[in-house]
Amino acid sequence: MKRLIMGNEAVAMGALKAGMTFFAAYPITPASEIMHILAEKEGEIVFLHAEDEIASIHLVIGGSLAGRKAMTSTSGPGMSLKQEGIGLAHMMEVPLVVVDVQRVGPSTGMPTLPSQGDIIQSIHGSHGDYNPIVLYPSSVEECYRYTIEAFNAAEESRSPVVLLLDGFLAHLSETVDLDRVSVEIKPRTLAPLGHGKRHFTGLLAKDGVPLTKDSLYYREWYGRVKTKMLETAMNYRFYEYLKNDQADTLLIAYGIVFRVILPLKKEFSLFKPVSLFPVLEKEIQAAASGHKRIVVIEMNDGQYRGEIQKVLPREVLGISVLGGTISLKEIRERLHDL
Amino acid sequence: MIYKDYVKWDRMPTNWCPGCSIGTVFRHLTLALEKAAVPREQMVVVSGIGCSGRAAGYFNVDSVHVTHGRAIPVAEGIKRSNEKLKVIVFSGDGDLVGIGGNHFLHSARRDSDIKVICINNGIYGMTGGQMAPTTPFGEKTLTSPFGTSYAPLNIQGIVTSNARYWYARTSSYHVNHLLKCLGEALEWPGFAFIEVMSFCIENFGRRQGFKNGFDMLFKLKQDYKLNPKPDGLLKNHELGVVKNVGQAS
C-alpha cells in the first residue's frame, strides 16, 4: 500500500521490520520523531526515554547483550556524547544500531537546519582505532531499506552500525510502498546473557581475561577485528552510479545532496555512495576512470572529500555547502566557477 | 550451588591490594547468592571502572565490565531486556555516584529492578587517591592537598527522595549485617542500593596516618553503630536499612 511518510518514520518502521525490540534514546531535534513513533509501541517493544544520551547508548548495549535487537537515535550533539558507548560496543563486539540525524554544528549550532557534518565523527568519534560500517540513505524508501540493512550489518559484524541521515531527509515526506521493499532479515548472532560464564569487558581481553599489557596480543586482536569488519562490509556495498557518456566530470554526493543534484545527470556522471564506510574504494576508482574531474559535493567543509582523496591518486575537487541551506542553482553556479 | 561455585577460581588472585576490604564484600555476596539460591544461569553482574569494578570478572557467571560510571544504565538495559535475570551492579562510589551520578539518580527514580552494591571507600583508589564525591569534609587527598572544601554526597538522601525505595548502609567490618543486607536486597522487588562503608589503605589511609588495613577496619567498628529500627532516616554514623513500599505519584 502506498503511503505518505517521512524519513524519521521510515527509520522507525524499518527498525521494527528488522526485529528491533529494544529502543532507548533522548529527545533531540531533528531526530525526535523516531522516538515519538516508537514510544507508541511501548509494551510490544522495550522503550526507554533515558536521562541523557550517554545513558541511552549504554541502555542499548545492555538490551542487546541480554538478547534483543536494539537501537538508539540522536543528532550531532548527542552523537558526541554517545561516542563512549560506541567505543565500548566495538570493544565488546555488541551488535546495535545508532541513528544520527545530522544538524549544523559544532555544539548546539543551528538545531533545525540540516548538515552532513558528522561524517568523520561517525568513524573517528571514539578514541582508539576501529572500523565501523556507516550507511547513509538518500530517500524515504532508502531510510526504510537501509535501516533494515543496518541491523543486518550489525548482527553480521557484531558491532555498532551507524545510520546517518540529515535534517532534510529526516523531515522529507515521500509517497512510498514499503511492502515492495524486500530485504532478507538476519537473525541474532550474539547468544544472550544468562548462559553462565562469559565476561564482556571494555578492556583488551582474551577469552574474558584482561590482557592489558600484552602489545603483541593487541596487534593480533586488532587484526582479527579489522578483518572481520572489512569482510562483513563486503556484503554491504550499496551505491548508485549514473554514468553519463558525454560527461568529463564525475559528481560524488550522498544523502539529500544527491537528491538535490539529481537533475545534473544530463550534464555530469553521478555517484552516490550509500555505504560511506568502509569507503567503496574499487567502485569509486572504477567510476572515476574516464572522467577528467572528480567533484565531491557535501554539506560540510570537505569531510568525505578527504576520504575519497585517500583512495584516488589524483586531485579531488570539492564543493562545500555550509550553513544548512542548499540549492541546485547555487551548486550549478559553483560547478561552473570551479 | 554453594558460594564457591559463584567464583571464577582460575582468575584468582584478584588485583586488590593486601589489606583491601573489597574481597570481604565479594565473599559475602557469594554467600548471599548461595542463601538466596540464585541459579548461575539467571544472574548477571555488571561493574564499572575502579578497583571494585574488577569484581565482575571474578564472578563465575555472565558478567559485564563497562566504561566509567555506566554500570547502572547497562544493568538496567539488561534487566529491561530480560526480566528473568537477576541483575547485580558491583562497583565503587566514584564510579556510581560520581561520574555515574546522573544514571544513579534516574535509575533510582525509575525504580529499575537492579541491585546496586556500592563499595564506598571515600576516595578514588585505583587512580592514586584523588578526592571522591564521598570524601569526608576536610580530608587531604591528591586533588585536595589543603583538605576538601565540600561535604560528602548524601547518598541516602538521594535514594530516599523517591516515593518507593530500598537503601541500606552497612560496612565491611559488620559482616553479619552486610550479609543480611545483601540477602534482603536480592529479594527486594525494585531498585535496591547498598552503601558498604569501606576503606582504602594504599591510596588514602596511609596518608591519613593509618599503619595498616586492620587499623582502618577497626575505625569502621568505632565509627559505625547498628540501628536495627531506624526512626526515619539513618543518622550519619548509623548502619541499617530504610525502605518504603510506596507507589510513585
Description of the structure:
The complex is a heterodimer of chains A (338) and B (249). Chain A contains twelve helices and 18 strands. Chain A is α/β, with parallel strands linked by helices. Chain A is globular, with a radius of gyration of 20 Å. The termini of chain A are far apart. The model of chain A has no long low-confidence stretch (mean pLDDT 97). Chain B has a single domain, classed as 3-Layer(aba) Sandwich (Rossmann fold). The N and C termini of chain B lie far apart (41 Å). Chain B has 249 residues and is of the alpha/beta class. The mean pLDDT of chain B is 96. Chain B has helices spanning 22-36, 71-81, 93-99, 101-109, 155-159, 175-187, 201-208, 213-223, and strands at residues 43-47, 62-65, 86-92, 115-120, 123-124, 130-131, 165-171, 192-197, 225-226, 238-244. In chain B, the strands form two sheets. Chain B has an eight-stranded mixed β-sheet, sandwiched between helices. Chain B has a two-stranded antiparallel ribbon with strand order 5-6. In chain B, 32% of the residues lie in helices and 19% in strands. Chain A binds chain B through residues 22, 24, 46, 48, 50-52, 54-56, 58-68, 70, 84-85, 87-88, 92, 192-203, 208-210, and chain B through 8, 11, 40-44, 46, 56-57, 60-67, 70, 73-82, 84-85, 102-103, 105-106.
